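Input protein
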Amino acid sequence: MMNWEKLLLPTSESGTGTELYRSQFERDFDRIVFSAPFRNLQDKTQVFPLPESDFVHTRLTHSLEVSSVGRSLGKSAGQFLIEKYSNLKQKGVNSSDIGAIVAAAALAHDIGNPPFGHAGEEAISDFFRFHAYGKIWQDHLEEASWADLVAFEGNAQGFRMLLAKENGLNISPAALAAFTKYPRPSLLKDKVSGRRSQKKYGFFSNDLTAFQALAESLGVHSCTQNSWLRHPLAFLVEAADDICYSIIDLEDGCTLGLVPLDEVIALLAEIIGDRFSPQKLKAYPSPRQKLAIMRAMAINQLVSETVAVFEREEENMLMGYFDSALTEMIPSAPILEKISKLSVQKIYRSKQVLEKEAAGFQVIEGLLACFSQAVYHFHFQKDRLSGQDKSILRLLPEDFAPEKFSKPYPLLRALLDFISGMTDKYALSLYRRVKGISLPGG
């Protein structure tokens, strides 16, 4: 059975390492906010292309909202933990500390997403699975390394970015573990069916040792070979994300005219229950105001329901018996499923979303084809290194010199750091330039 004191304070004997004005977990949050990878989320779409009118969410605003919901979940669950485990209070841990851990991990939850979101992830995977200059690397890589490439995962890229010294984040072990919703590598031969934590993977093969050390320091138990139980706070991070994208994607869909306001109000009213008053809602004159109040009340209800499930299942989490999404266990789960089905039908398959995804596939594949071909020729086929290849190589960041890499996997990881770290606009602009569709300054 895992132990909360070690899960929260693996190395400190004097509480949360509080500075004069902030705890180590508040410092985690601040470091993420001021990091370049987080700032880049402002120009990465959440679902919709960024319109000229009518605000819709970017990855940045989505991450801030998930963090806000995560803080509420963490503080409420934290109060329960402090009251249940007196040793935590004796060590100087309070409910705000637990809220700050969840808030920081939730703030970073999308930090590894490539341009164009999930379409970007799939585009990277498809490039290595199907493109000639993607498949060409397979014979040069170990099985585990190849598995990372043909199933690119933004969660694993995020773990890598949080570890990267050049990003200067150095967040606490508790926040890093809470961030890791899928504590397993891409290649897992003894996957356990039905465990939510094994649905995807959370770190690349070359970060396996780093996660092993993290798990050992926190007392996170292994599940099978090379897979671990979740840190219990990771369930709250996941729930915060689930709550936000369910409710806020629906709100965006309504704002853009894809879902009628009355239909959205009816769905959110089912979540709110007896607290919903049609008469009071009429007092708000604009659709935007009606949406805002309904969204706030629905999220508040979902937070309360989620914390109740967390409290009920907390000991089972510590023992590894519970491994499901909290939002699938709450009373409002059937309504969230109804919202999900409606969102797929009317929002995620809308013309503007599908056009954005199609463009993302073209852009990501085009960039990878140019850079992968040039890098491959440089390393393995010098006789085919063309003038175009040399020009492409000069576009790589200064700290990414192909000659620095003696092995192909670290080289490809660096290339994917470069591509996945781009904003949507920069990726599109660079694609146009390398393809000759537009010229610099044009």
Residues 128 and 149 are 6 Å apart (CA to CA).
